[in-house]
Each structure stands twice: as structure tokens, then as C-alpha cells.
Design goal:
The complex is a heterodimer of chains A (552) and B (128). Chain A has 552 residues and is of the alpha/beta class. Chain A is built from 22 helices and nine strands. Chain A has helices spanning 3-10, 41-45, 78-90, 102-105, 129-135, 152-164, 194-197, 200-217, 231-234, 238-258, 263-266, 280-302, 307-310, 330-344, 364-380, 394-414, 418-423, 426-444, 472-488, 491-507, 513-521, 526-536; strands at residues 68-73, 95-98, 146-147, 174-175, 221-222, 224-226, 270-276, 314-318, 349-351. Chain A has a six-stranded parallel β-sheet. In chain A, strands 3-4-5 form a three-stranded parallel β-sheet, covered by helices on one side. The N and C termini of chain A lie far apart (80 Å). The chains are: A alpha/beta (552), B alpha/beta (128). The A-B interface holds A 102-103, 106, 114-118, 121-122, 186-193, 233-235, 321, 324-326, 358-361, 432, 435-436, 439, 443, 449, 451-453, 462, 464, 467, 469-470 and B 10-16, 19-20, 23-24, 36-38, 40, 61-64, 67-68, 90-94, 109-111, 113-115.
Chain lengths: 552, 128
């Protein structure tokens, strides 16, 4: 017997030592009717599709419609990403979610001096309508739901594209998630630039304009999706994730109402992107609790009874933090458990992470396995047959109540205070200290991470996996396209359109979209449109202060 | 005492890992100058000289390490900054040797124990 095999024999009598949920809620050995004594079926649960929607937003849930398989997709160039989107559709993906690279989030074009090395790295570069045309080439946009994880000017590229294609806008489905006021919370902005460079007021305005424009022109589009940045990955607990995003959503809804919309016009457009971690019961309970809190909160705040307004609709991204570099194939199993938890929680749409995420962006093969993970769950395991299969479990109902209390308390604390809580950095500091605490538990061994702090394989036995590499030739082609675009477009028209955008934004009352869509059709770039919006707020044209406005 | 400069260079905001590492090193008694994300190679060199640190640590998440590290290493040479450079984050195995060829002393991939990182930085930073 080797020393190693003898050690594993000692585990025969091993007992679990961390008797808490993933986020740290202590749990007992068993739950009984006494633990949910105060829970009333009609008042607190209700059938699926009935207030307060704890058991699901629709009667019968997945029997009525399966969840959307929607994988975040974006790398190298619009053309490469187009190929990947089509590949995933062929493999059975049922909705699309192109995600932009970091340059777009910062409002700069691919040829900005600071963009070097970042173009196409973590998403698709999207500088103009031309890029959008390439990205969506050959994809029937009237038949597929498209979630655009892209900066605001790119929404104008999309609208310009579907208008140019002559599609009936009222039939198109998808989401324009908006970089709302939560952007500073999740590391998507340079912290040393943030406050003056990205005024919260500007984000509120852009988001509200999007909501109001879509509501009138693309009524089947969701206009507000809170949470794609993923507070959980920054260290938030499940309850904090829900509570903070609810408060952010409320701030946006109130702003839209201040601009003249009614609650029942706006609320049905609100959706969330939330993470799903690996603690199966805590995550399932979280989604159940979130539905109950959201429905009660909105009924109280806005007095509405409309189910379309009161239901918490969520796209799930399986969490990246639990994935481990060592023995990377094990991540397939981790993601499968996370996906199971989300479906037991009754979610509407899902992105499953690829097993190679701790090393690189997904390859074709790893992204197909991510899709297959959802398909196996959907078609083989039987989870879709019965709505809210965990309903009535003493433990899950207790945990749902427990999370509801925590979420409600946090919402009460934050709902009138969310903007200062974000701006002052108070929230992000709290999340950071929790991320540190998590690491302490990993280091001490209290939190077991298989392959990382227990059951370690010698590095030389680690299986080498193929990782994604950015296609440099594709990036060069994209850069050439941008150069060609600047050379061949009508600069006089471009200038006129940009001035128009700036005037409309300065006006503060008028909706930005008609002018922005016109600018898109004239092939104004994302950097230019972002720049004139910034100028209308009294800021530098260029976020890094390196470029001058080119059309003085 | 070891003084280390920590930053993320170029455009990438994924800073959970590097913030945890920075605090960990502080708690283990090092002086950490944390520059934050979205920094340039120039920012790093300027601060390293100004703060008189003994070692530099850079973190990457999105695949930009092969682009950014040579630039930082080159600028360190130009400025006669003869201190160790370490890199951490989402680094595929196949890139480790390439980074070392650029002059990187150590590469810490994700899920490297904090104890390993702390110990190695102690060894490297002690020489400077």
C-alpha cells in the first residue's frame, strides 16, 4: 500500500465539517414541519404562476416553454464571432448573447491608442453598424431572441441593422441590458477614473432612454437587465446579489417613471441576470425567495397587480468563482450542478460556463460541452416535467424564508440609498472583504476545493487541454475594416449626425435614440457617439483624455 | 521589509483575484502599493521608481499577458529597473515558459495557494 492510498482509507470515517450553506448560513441536521410553521401556502407560496410567484412565474413552468440556452459569445472579430454564433445555433443553442470586448464598454474604438492588445480579447469588438452587419450576417433576427451584451451605441447599430433589413420591429425579441448605474460596482470601469468620468446621471439617462424607446418601438424587447456584471463574482452573497440588483432596478424604474412612463409600462421590461453557484439548495431557494420578494416589493411600491409587472424574470450565468484550473475537466461536473440548481430554482434562460474558463475563453469544443450540459439536463434528467419540484421540502422552504428575510432587510436598508452606496465605494468594499474571507476559508482548508486544496494531482499528471487563442488575422481584418470605413464614409454627414446626437443629449428631455440610430446608419463609430454623449455632459470627448473631437 | 507594486495593465477590470492577493500580502507583513486596473506600462514603471519597490506583480484575466508583459519588461530594462517581475492570473500552461523568456521570475496561475505566492515573493523580493 502506498502512503496515498492509506490516507484515503482514513476517509472511511470522515464526517463533513463545514455545516453551512456556501454563503455561510448555518444549517441543522434535519428540517421538520416546525421549521416552516408560519408558512402559509396561498399567502407565501401559491401555485406556479400565482402571486407571490415563489413556485414559478408560469403555471406548469417548463412544460409551457423550456428555458433558453443562451451562451455568451464573443472573441477576436465580428466575423469570427458570427461563425461561433452560427456554430452554437447548429449545436442546439436556442437564443443568442453576443458580448462585447472591453474597449466598447469604455466607449473607445478598436483603433484608440489604449485599445492595443485588448481588441477581441474578452468579447467581440463592435465599432460601427458595419461590425454589426458582419456579426449578424445570415442570422434570421426575426426568428431568434438576441441579448446584446454590448454598450449603448451598439444598440443603435442593431436597430439600424434591423430597420435596414426591413424587419417588423414589433416582432423582434431580445434584450438590451444597458450599462446601468451598477457599472462601477463590478470592475467594469477604471476605479481611478470613475466618478467624474462616468457620472451616474449619464448612465441613468442612457438607460431610461433605452427603456422608453424600446417600449414604443421594439415592444417585445426587454430594456432593462440588471446584473450581467455578476456581483457574486466580486464576493456578494446570494442575498446581497438579489437585494442590491433589486435596488438598482428600482432606481431605474423610478427614473423612467419620472420621465413619464407608468409602472406597468416599465416593470414588464425589467429582467435580471443572476449567477448560480454550486450549493444546490441555497441557489434554488434564492431564486424562489427572489420571486417572492420582487412581487411583494413591487405591489407595495407601485400598487400594481399585473403579473407581467410583478414577476421576477431571470437569465442565469453559472458562477465562475467555483471553477478550478487544476484537473479542469472536473469543471464540467461543477457547471452541471450549478445548472441543475438554477433549473430547480425555475429560471428562464441560462449560460453555462465552459470547463476551460480558468485558463482562457471557451474553445469550440468546450462551448459545445457547455451547451450539451444544458441539453442533458433538459432532455434526460426529468427536471422539466414538474414545476417547482423542491416546493414543500422542509429544508428548501425554510431556506427560502431565511433568504427572503435577508433580502428584504437589505432592500429596506438600500432602496433609497443605492446611488450613494455605489458612488461612495461602500458596497464594493464590503464585497471585497467577503472575497477575502472566502479565500481565507479556502487557504485554511475549511472550504474544500477539489483539486486545489484537497485531492490534488501532481502537476505533471495534469492533462494538458487545448485553449482558445485570439485569431490575430481576424483582428487585423477587423482593424482594416475600421480604417476603410473612416476613409470611405461621408464625413460631412457623420459630422452632422454627431452634432445632432450631442444636441439631443444636451437637451436632456428628448430621447437620444432617433438621433443615435441615424448616426449609426451614417456609420458614425461607437467611440464617436460615446464621445459626443460625454461632451454633452461636460466631459472630455475621450475617456482617457488622449483624443480630440475630430469634427471641430 | 518587502515593498511590492501590484497592478493590472491595459484594459481589463477583472480585479477580484488581485485585490485578494494584495490584501493577503499586506496581512503577511509586506508593503503593497496597489495601482488598480487599467494602468499602462509607463504608470507601472513610474510608480515602481517613485515608490522604490523591490518587486513588481502584474495580474491578467483576459489573455493580454503576452501582449503586455514584454512591454513592461522592456521598459524596466530601459529604466535600469533591475527588480523581479511576477505575473498571476488566468495564464494557460503553454504561456508560462514564454513569460519566463520575457524575464518574468514567477507565474502564479489561478488557484495557486496564497502561502505559495507569499513565500515565493518573500524569496524573490528579499534579493532586491
Amino acid at each position: 500500500m502506498t502512503e496515498k492510498s492509506l490516507r484515503s482509507l482514513e476517509k472511511y470515517f470522515e464526517k463533513p465539517t463545514r455545516l453551512k450553506t456556501w454563503s455561510g448560513i448555518p444549517v441543522k441536521d434535519v428540517y421538520t414541519p416546525d421549521d416552516i410553521e408560519a408558512t402559509e401556502y396561498q399567502k407565501d407560496l401559491g401555485d406556479p404562476g400565482q402571486f407571490p410567484y415563489t413556485r414559478g412565474i408560469m403555471p406548469g413552468m417548463y412544460r409551457g416553454r423550456l428555458w433558453s440556452i443562451r451562451e455568451l459569445t464573443g472573441a477576436s472579430s465580428p466575423r469570427e464571432t458570427n461563425k461561433r454564433l452560427k456554430y452554437l445555433l447548429l449545436e442546439g443553442e436556442t437564443a443568442l448573447a453576443p458580448i462585447g470586448d472591453v474597449t466598447g464598454n469604455l466607449g473607445i474604438d478598436s483603433d484608440h491608442p489604449r485599445a492595443r492588445g485588448a481588441v477581441g480579447m474578452q468579447g467581440v469588438p463592435m465599432c460601427s453598424l458595419r461590425d454589426m452587419e458582419i456579426l449578424m450576417d445570415g442570422i434570421p433576427l426575426d426568428q431568434v431572441s438576441v441579448s446584446l451584451l454590448l454598450p449603448t451605441p451598439a444598440y443603435a447599430f442593431y436597430i439600424a441593422l434591423v430597420q435596414n433589413q426591413g424587419l417588423d420591429l414589433s416582432k423582434l425579441r431580445g434584450t438590451m441590458p444597458c450599462k446601468g448605474i451598477n457599472a462601477p460596482l463590478a470592475g467594469t470601469l477604471p476605479e481611478y477614473l470613475d466618478r467624474e468620468t462616468y457620472p451616474v446621471g449619464m448612465y441613468l439617462r442612457l438607460t431610461t432612454d433605452t427603456i422608453l424607446f424600446l417600449q414604443k418601438n421594439l415592444p417585445r424587447f426587454y430594456a432593462l437587465n440588471i446584473g450581467p456584471e455578476g456581483l457574486r463574482e466580486s464576493g456578494a452573497t446570494p442575498a446581497q446579489e438579489i437585494a442590491i440588483d433589486f435596488c438598482i432596478a428600482l432606481a431605474h424604474v423610478r427614473d423612467a417613471m419620472r420621465r413619464g412612463a407608468t409602472a406597468d409600462e416599465i416593470l414588464p421590461k425589467v429582467t435580471f441576470t443572476h449567477r448560480c453557484g454550486i450549493d444546490i439548495f441555497e441557489e434554488a431557494a434564492k431564486f424562489r425567495a427572489a420571486r417572492r420578494v420582487w412581487a411583494r416589493l413591487l405591489r407595495e411600491e407601485f400598487g400594481t397587480e399585473d403579473p407581467r409587472s410583478l414577476t421576477y424574470k431571470v437569465h442565469v450565468v453559472t458562477m465562475g468563482t467555483p471553477l478550478v484550473r487544476q484537473q479542469p475537466l472536473n469543471n464540467i461536473i461543477r457547471v452541471a450542478y450549478e445548472a441543475l440548481a438554477a433549473i430547480l430554482g425555475g429560471v428562464q434562460s441560462m449560460h453555462t460556463m465552459s470547463y476551460d474558463e480558468p485558463l482562457s475563453l471557451p474553445t469550440e469544443e468546450s462551448s459545445r460541452i457547455a451547451v450539451r450540459t444544458q441539453q442533458i439536463l433538459c432532455y434526460e434528467t426529468g427536471v422539466v416535467n414538474v414545476a417547482d419540484p423542491l416546493g414543500g421540502s422542509y429544508y428548501v422552504e425554510w431556506l427560502t424564508n431565511r433568504l427572503e428575510e435577508e433580502i428584504t432587510q437589505l432592500v429596506d436598508e438600500l432602496k433609497d440609498d443605492i446611488v450613494p452606496a455605489i458612488e461612495s465605494g461602500r458596497l464594493i468594499r464590503q464585497l471585497e472583504s467577503q472575497a477575502l474571507e472566502f479565500q481565507r476559508e479556502v487557504e485554511s482548508g475549511e472550504r474544500v476545493v477539489v483539486g486545489a486544496n484537497r485531492f490534488i494531482t501532481a502537476e505533471q499528471e495534469e492533462r494538458e487541454i487545448k485553449v482558445h487563442e485570439v485569431n490575430e488575422e481576424a483582428v487585423r481584418e477587423h482593424m482594416d475594416n475600421l480604417k476603410e470605413l473612416r476613409r470611405t464614409r461621408d464625413s460631412q454627414k457623420v459630422k452632422k449626425c454627431l452634432e445632432q446626437v450631442r444636441e439631443v443629449v444636451e437637451d436632456r428631455a428628448e430621447n437620444l435614440y432617433p438621433a443615435m440610430v441615424e448616426a449609426a446608419k451614417t456609420y458614425c463609430t461607437l467611440g464617436e457617439i460615446s464621445g459626443v454623449i460625454r461632451m454633452a455632459y461636460g466631459l472630455d470627448y475621450d475617456v482617457f483624455g488622449m483624443l480630440e473631437y475630430p469634427f471641430k | 521589509m518587502i515593498r511590492i507594486l501590484i497592478a493590472k495593465v491595459e484594459l481589463d477590470g477583472h480585479d477580484r483575484g488581485i485585490k485578494v492577493v494584495s490584501q493577503w500580502l499586506r496581512d503577511s507583513g509586506m508593503e503593497v502599493v496597489y495601482l488598480g486596473a487599467y494602468r499602462t506600462a509607463e504608470d507601472v514603471i513610474k510608480s515602481a521608481v517613485h515608490e522604490d519597490v523591490g518587486i513588481i506583480g502584474l495580474s491578467f484575466q483576459g489573455g493580454q499577458h503576452l501582449f503586455c508583459v514584454p512591454e513592461v519588461a522592456e521598459k524596466m530594462k530601459e529604466n535600469n529597473l533591475n527588480i523581479p517581475l511576477v505575473v498571476g492570473g488566468n495564464i494557460p500552461n503553454k504561456d508560462i515558459n514564454k513569460l519566463k523568456q520575457f524575464g518574468v521570475s514567477e507565474v502564479f496561475q489561478t488557484n495557486t495557494p496564497m502561502a505559495t505566492i507569499t513565500e515565493r515573493i518573500h524569496e524573490l523580493g528579499g534579493k532586491g
